[in-house]
Amino acid sequence: MKLRQILLATAILLAPGYALAAESVTMVPPPALDQTAVTGPETIVLAGGCFWGVQGVYQHMKGVTSAVSGYSGGKKETASYEIVSGGDTGHAEAVEVTFDRGAVSLGKILQVYFSVVHNPTELNRQGPDSGTQYRSAIFTTNAEQEKIAKAYIAQLDKAKAYSDPIVTKVSSLEKFYPAEDYHQDYATIHPSQPYIAYYDIPKIENLSKLFPQDYRDKPVLVSEAKASN
Fold first, then answer.
1. Which of 35, 73, 144, 149 sits 20 to 30 Å CA-CA off 4?
2. 23 falls in which pLDDT band (50, 70, 90)?
């Protein structure tokens, strides 16, 4: 989130008569095609706008053991916030989601992604953020993930789950680069920051309302994982 956008969010919050608006949400059906019943850890990288909110949602999801903000789609030398913010690196702000297949399936991870994380019909933007770095993208780590994700997008488009076609791109993950430390756990550390309060806290609240069986109040944090290592 660039400084000018933070200031914009601040101005909205301080405007006379302002009232917090709930994040728009579209509850979509689960995927018809999902993983086989196999346990063990698995990782997928998801991009859906500013990574603060994406990370915040998955940190509150049962079965997720790690959610790390970072960059995917570009080269190592351009994987820094200041450079990625320019919009021409090929990177997307993304979150590396590691989950226990014995506790949650990829299908549920994707259902949450398409229901509450972001609007998958917006091309190269989410909320006040615009540019290719805020695109909707799924970076898969194996062939099964790619098959399930593409089939799910086709399923949702066929069912006209949204008024517009889904623009989410699915591709194989080449490399994920963790973001700077100050971006990690941002929604938890700064819940009253105007951008977080207006755009991201509602996403987490929608997770608790639409998927109460998958929601956990205590998030799994990057800082706590580092402290335990």
1. 73
2. low
228 band by pLDDT with thresholds 50, 70 and 90: confident
Query: What does the alpha-carbon distance between residue 41 and residue 119 come to, in Å, rounded to a whole number?
Result: 27
Catalytic residue among 9, 50, 68, 138: 50
Rg (CA), the chain: 17
- The full set of domains in the chain, from first to last, is 38-221 (3.30.1060.10)
Residue type, 52: W
- CB 56, CB 64: distance < 8 Å: no
Cα separation, 229 vs 224, in Å, equals: 9
Name the least confident of 52-56, 126-130, 224-228. Answer: 224-228
**8 Å CB contact between 137 and 153:** no
Give which of 159, 167, 112, 161 is closest to 137, Cα–Cα: 167
- 196 as an active site residue: the answer is no
Strand partners, 170: 138
* Sequence letter at residue 163: S
